[in-house]
Amino acid sequence: MSVTIYAPASMGNVGVGFDLLGGALAPVDGSLLGDKVTVESAEQGLELVVVGHWANKLPANQDENIVYQCAVFFLEHLGQEVGLKLTLEKNLPVGSGLGSSASSVVAALMALNEYFDQPFSELQVLKLMGDFEGQISGSVHYDNVAPCFLGGMQLMLDTPQAICEPIPTFKQWYWVVAYPGISLSTARMRGLMPEHYSKQTTIDFGRYLSAFVHACYKQDDKLAIAVLKDVLAEPYRAAEIPQYQQAKSALNELGMLTTGISGSGPTLFTITDDAETAQAAKQWLDEHYIDPQLGFSHICQIDDLGARRV
């Protein structure tokens, strides 16, 4: 028996919702932007094979690979020792702001759960994903793993009843994402943010996020764009991302509706409701923002499917 799971790239924060909002991404050309993990039987022990475009950026020692660690973590919770071979197809760059580690974790844990005939419920698997991501980053954040696993745009609730809930999205929006080709440490980018914020900044954060969610339910795209502002992270991170400020200004001149940082960067996202403008933005980013040898850009919409068998 063999199970292969694809887990899409995701945008944490979505600008306006630091640690509380995330969206899964699907390129409009039908290509898959995310990692795949295959689980199959082996005679004994755990074996990991790593392939894919970004395989050479991962640790050579399998014990240091998060997919291998996921398998150990999962089997401990399952209370079994069995032989397994895992294959990671690494299609997302590490430290990109596209939920690279979340994609690997989600694909691995969902594949393992499917392989063992779903011993854990969807909520239990999501909690395992969050707990494991927390071990990697030092604290539990669901804004990448939740949309990657469940699809759509997810609002983090963190209540006893629910970890997150999907919110309506704007089907007419194109999300152009551009990864310039450099990696930025999430821990370092979090470290740039202050420990404390002014009262006005916290009020603005709450106002913009609540207004954005309200606009999503009303399907008021003009209001949503007007309040899609990042007052917590971008003011402190923007200068650390080469050419980000110039790109934001140029994209505004091209007619894009708004631009922000995906996750902790360096990937940016920029939004339009016009396909031609999206194509023009992609072309500008290809020519001016990304390293053609290392970076990439995609015109995307929100991926409603989330992680799935392929």
Automatic annotation (TrEMBL):
Enzyme Commission number(s) from the entry: 2.7.1.39
Domain GHMP kinase C-terminal: 228-290
Pfam family, one: GHMP_kinases_N
InterPro entries: GHMP_kinase_C_dom, GHMP_kinase_C_sf, GHMP_kinase_N_dom, GHMP_knse_ATP-bd_CS, Homoserine_kinase, Ribosomal_Su5_D2-typ_SF, Ribsml_uS5_D2-typ_fold_subgr
Major enzyme class: transferase
Protein origin, superkingdom: Bacteria
Keywords linked to the UniProt accession: Amino-acid biosynthesis, ATP-binding, Cytoplasm, Kinase, Nucleotide-binding, Threonine biosynthesis, Transferase
Pathway per the UniProt entry: Amino-acid biosynthesis; L-threonine biosynthesis; L-threonine from L-aspartate: step 4/5
GO annotation (BP), single: threonine biosynthetic process
Start and end residues of each GHMP kinase N-terminal domain: 65-152
One function term, GO molecular function aspect: homoserine kinase activity
Location of the protein in the cell: Cytoplasm
Annotated ATP binding sites: 93-103
GO CC annotations on file: cytoplasm
Catalyses which reaction(s): L-homoserine + ATP = O-phospho-L-homoserine + ADP + H(+)
Cited function: Catalyzes the ATP-dependent phosphorylation of L-homoserine to L-homoserine phosphate.
Family listed: Belongs to the GHMP kinase family. Homoserine kinase subfamily.
PANTHER family listed in its UniProt record: HOMOSERINE KINASE, HOMOSERINE/4-DIPHOSPHOCYTIDYL-2-C-METHYL-D-ERYTHRITOL KINASE
Name assigned to this protein: Homoserine kinase
Organism for this UniProt entry: Shewanella piezotolerans (strain WP3 / JCM 13877)
Lineage of producing organism: Bacteria, Pseudomonadati, Pseudomonadota, Gammaproteobacteria, Alteromonadales
Gene that produces this protein: thrB
